[in-house]
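Example protein as discussed:

>
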Amino acid sequence: MSFQPIIPLSGLGGWTFLNATKESQTDAFERSPRISRDTAYFEAMIGEITSAEELVSDRRLLRIALGAFDLQDDLDNRFLIRRILEGGVTNEDALANKMSDERYKSLAEAFGFGDGGTPSTQRAGFGAEITARYRQISFEVAVGDQDESLRLALNAERELAEIAREPSESQDALWFRIMGTPPLRRVFEVALGLPDSFAQLDLDKQLEVFKDRSESQLGIAQLADLADAKTMDTLIERYLLRNQVDGMQGQSSNAIALTLLQQATSRF
């Protein structure tokens, strides 16, 4: 059995503890037998894969490939994954570009089976790049087995840091990328206090609300602002606090205040 992260608290208290122990916990997790065996196998075998068909035919390789993009729940959807990989991302009509979840596009783009030329599996260092992502996301999944809100916080911290360093895409394109990635979208919706019905609005209206509220409530005038640690902390803390309050709706106001006070004091 893999090492299971230790999460003694929920909410901000759990987030503070996790950050304080993250280095030692991730090291122990990554050295666990299953993670070590999986990553060694992938790095040894992925260079022999030259097509999407070959990848989906090896369940173990496919499990690691999907896990590296937080798509592990699609392990049994081999036909769909093959079509996405074979279609690539260059053609506007490619299946990956039509999926509402941006993670499929990231997967197809990373492996490069459908866009002509040599697939990424033949590039030196590709296996190590994928296993590094797999280790990180597998740790997030293990955290989520105990506290889903902390998993989403870890995911947002990692992915938004990458988005903040994207100078080539327009701001609207980056926002649509966030809106099309369910875990990131959830963090913003909760942090900004958006209702469940918000997703029913026109996409352009949703974009407008995301941008306006992020600037007024979180100080995010442009997504590059998320490269600042304080801005990122504000987003994550707002998400965790509001998520915790939403989960306390059945409690009295005094009980909620006491719990949040305990969470806050545990951070210092």
Observations:
- Residues 24 and 192 are 32 Å apart (CA to CA).
